[in-house]
Amino acid sequence: MIEIGFPAVDKGTNSPNLFYAPKSSESAVPPFSNGARDDLLQRRALSVATRFWAEQPMVEQVLVWAWDGRPWPDFPARNEVWSDGDNWQFGHWLNGRTGLIDLSETVEDMALKSGTQIEARRVSGVLDGFAIEGVTSLASALSPLVTAYEFEVLDGEAGLIARHEGIVSVATLSEAQTLEDSFQRTRTLLEKQPSAISLSYISGDGGYQQAVVDARSSDATSGVTFSYRLPLVMSETRANALAARMLNQDLKLDALSLALPPGQTPGLEISDRIRYQSEDWIVARIEEQGLQRQIKLRPPRLAFERVQTFDVPNAERPSIVSAEPFGKLIDSPALDHLDFVPPYIAVSASPWRGAMPIKIGPDALEMTERGVVSAPAGIGRLENTLGAAPADAWDETNVIDLFIPGEALSSRRRLGASRLARG
Question: What is the count of structural domains for the chain?
């Protein structure tokens, strides 16, 4: 038997035993970690480690640390109840993380279901949820993911490959290495730039209903709004960040086009980063035109925090689960303070749902309403046995030991106003 666990923090595999807990003297992040939260790393580390140890002949069982018995998402969201909730962000907890979807696995699975294959191990990210609405093509189904997670699906030598844009330049080009008069630089007209982005998404903290967020530019004055609809489950915080990033990309002004002679950078691929005239550019398109190659370049996207984590749902208002009502039939003499005749029925429930109809009949199909209980009654039980006593006289011998949960008894000044029915 062996126990394993990894913190959900950048480079958590460098030292899995370390944990984040500001109130502890042993709180620390792994070596070379930037301290950012990373649920995807924890997921992949557990997958590799459990697979490795499960194949070892001397290990009979692999236990993973840690699953917390406290209810999700109340823990970690309700700090007024549990003071260690903040530690969950970067800790070893599995609660709330086991249902996350690996982006690379999602892309590869969708491709298999459509009858093809995509090698997607080079894309990273996690999803809260993703909806495919109706019968569609693989390209259309992947389009929201491509937009949100900024990757490309390319046709490689061994088949389709999914990858993000390059981080390190794979080639450096000068004007002398391009064909003469092939260089073109274009800029989007200001009136074509959007002033705002409207993003429709599936609210993860709003009952999975459609929600909309907006991002606006203080510089653009065109009054044009670009609308996007992404069937992705995300929080409002994540949706706002995504809309702002999409607006930033739509405001990019420049694009380059140039032609390369035969044999110049033969291994260049779409999404590669190259350096041209002391600037970094991303290859957006490659066209073979006879012996020359026409290359279209776009500016690199701004560095952003790839979605490798998710937001904790709001648990400020705990849900209330109503109890089943409990009723008791009372066959007693008429009570002068009531306007109806016996028998009576007392109903109790916590919390009280409101007025409850009383239905009577020989079976469930022939029930008829006979009355309505408008207020709850205090129903309890005797904790002792009452002995015999004379009627219409004070009983100074017996003692009533009564348990009524959730009720506060009080005495009435008027003689005979306090009533207690024993069923």
Answer: 2
* CA–CA separation, 96 and 302 (whole Å): 30
Its domain, for residue 338, covers 326-403
* pLDDT digit string, tens, across residues 97-111: 888 888 999 999 999
Q: Does 195 fall in a domain?
A: no
Q: What is the pLDDT of residues 196-229, one digit of tens each?
A: 889 999 987 767 889 999 998 877 667 788 899 9
The predicted structure's pLDDT at residue 309: 54
Q: How many CA atoms lie within 13 A of 104 on its CB side?
A: 15
Q: Is residue 260 a part of any domain in this protein?
A: no
